[in-house]
Amino acid sequence: MADRSLLLRGARGERLTSTSVAVDVESARRDWEEAHRRLAQVETGLHAEGAVHRQLRALTEELRKRVGSTFTLAELAAEYARADHWALDAVAQAPFPGWLSSLTVVEGAAFHLYSRGALDYQP
Fold first, then answer.
1. How many CB atoms are closer than 10 A to CB 91?
2. By CB atoms within 10 Å of each CB, which of 14, 18, 40, 55 scores lowest?
3. Which 8-state DSSP code applies to residue 85?
């Protein structure tokens, strides 16, 4: 397995490695993939396909503002860790019955879809 650690520079220029970044990214990607798989169930179960897609668009627009169009998976995973602070506000304009209970799925699916644009994305 290739070394996926992130190389950092310390105060004196020494190289530091961090495997926790790679672990966090892989964990986040698993969460996103699972949410994307569950998205169809949310749409069917709540009969709210149009509203779910509006929420996906709202989250995608917010991600574009927060991480831009040029980003790495590590940067996206870092934003995912902060998403609890902003995701609710981003999707509140497209509510539907039961939307709050599906927010985690829609949020994860949005991150999954957005991750495909990462500089270091690999399927």
1. 25
2. 14
3. G
User: For residue 118, which of 81, 62, 65, 69 has the smallest C-alpha distance?
Assistant: 69
Q: What's at 66, amino acid-wise?
A: R
| pLDDT attached to residue 46 | 57
Task: Kindly state the tokens that stand for 80.
Answer: 């995912």
Q: Mapping DSSP to helix (H, G, I), strand (E, B) and coil, where does residue 8 land?
A: strand
Tens of pLDDT along 96-108?
Answer: 666 777 788 999 9
Distance from C-alpha of 67 to C-alpha of 122, rounded to nearest angstrom: 18
Structural tokens at position 62 = 């917010």
At residue 8, φ and ψ (nearest 5 deg) are: -125, 160
End-to-end CA distance of the chain: 16
Q: Give the residue among 36, 39, 4, 34 at the shortest CA–CA distance from 18.
A: 4
Q: Which amino acid belongs to residue 84?
A: D
Q: For the whole model, what pTM was predicted?
A: 0.75
Percent of the chain at pLDDT above 70?
Answer: 72
